[in-house]
Write a structure and sequence with these properties.
This protein is of the alpha/beta class. It is built from nine helices and eleven strands. It has one domain: Rossmann fold, CATH 3.40.50. The strands form three sheets. The chain has a seven-stranded mixed β-sheet, with helices on both faces. Helix 8 packs antiparallel against helix 9. The chain is globular, with a radius of gyration of 17 Å.
Length: 243
């Protein structure tokens, strides 16, 4: 529970951070939009999407996190919590849990291998495994409708999530890490094949884009390859619609 408590304390109660997040997402999330928050954790981005007037489907596999989400949004009829891991297909998923830092729990064995011994990751321990339900983006679209924006933050499982999508959407984001740069390149290739056309990047938890304007996939892939290891992580944003 202490890891979850730290997450709640880190992500809630900072009005300046919330205002910056809302301003950052406002061009991507319009009032009345449907948003999928895939890897919702304890819902800090979910909160921003709701403040912007969106209806949100929050997808999160960790029972403690979904319990917190349901408690936080119990009176909000425009939030739907789905307790599942999103991936390439439906069915059971093995989740590796980091009890001390649950935000980096993962369904990706490759992520665990990449983190092992990597600078900045030495103290991270995935100390438990649980079996969770699995769903796909296509399944979520069929159940809830077509989202205007999808946020994907699933610790190395991003390409699997995108493999469960068979059509372009207006916009989405996926997390990348510098310990798995090839994975980000695979995601960019997959999105291009699906029909996404322009891309950009935000580094770390910064509420600003690192690039001037939206770029072709190849330019973003080159930018990610050139990042120093210490950049650690960020998010790639993809559009299949004009600004």
């Amino acid at each position: 529970m202490s890891g979850l408590r730290r997450s709640l304390e880190a992500y809630y109660g900072d009005p300046a951070r919330e205002a910056a997040m809302d301003a950052f997402y406002a061009p991507l999330v319009r009032p009345g939009d449907l948003v999928f928050d895939v890897g919702a954790h304890v819902g800090d981005r979910l909160g921003s999407f709701r403040r912007l007037g969106a209806r949100v489907v929050a997808v999160e596999p960790q029972p403690l996190c979904t319990r917190a989400l349901r408690a936080l949004y119990a009176d909000d009829g425009r939030v739907t919590v789905v307790e599942a891991a999103c991936g390439a297909c439906t069915g059971p998923v093995r989740l590796h849990v980091n009890s001390a830092n649950p935000t980096i729990s993962t369904a990706s064995a490759g992520f665990l291998q990449a983190a092992g011994g990597a600078g900045g990751w030495e103290d991270e321990i995935w100390d438990a495994e649980i079996e969770v339900a699995g769903t796909t983006l296509d399944t979520l679209v069929a159940a809830h409708g077509v989202p205007g924006f999808v946020k994907i933050d699933v610790e190395g499982f991003e390409d699997a999530v995108l493999a469960g999508l068979s059509r372009p959407l207006p916009a989405l984001s996926f997390e990348f890490t510098t310990i798995e740069r090839d994975l980000a390149a695979h995601c960019l290739d997959r999105l291009t094949r699906l029909g996404f056309t322009t891309f950009t990047v935000a580094l770390g938890d910064e509420m600003a884009f690192a690039l001037d304007g939206w770029r072709p996939a190849g330019e973003v892939a080159a930018y990610l390859r050139a990042l120093p290891h210490e950049a650690n992580s960020g998010d790639v944003y993809a559009r299949a619609r004009p600004a």
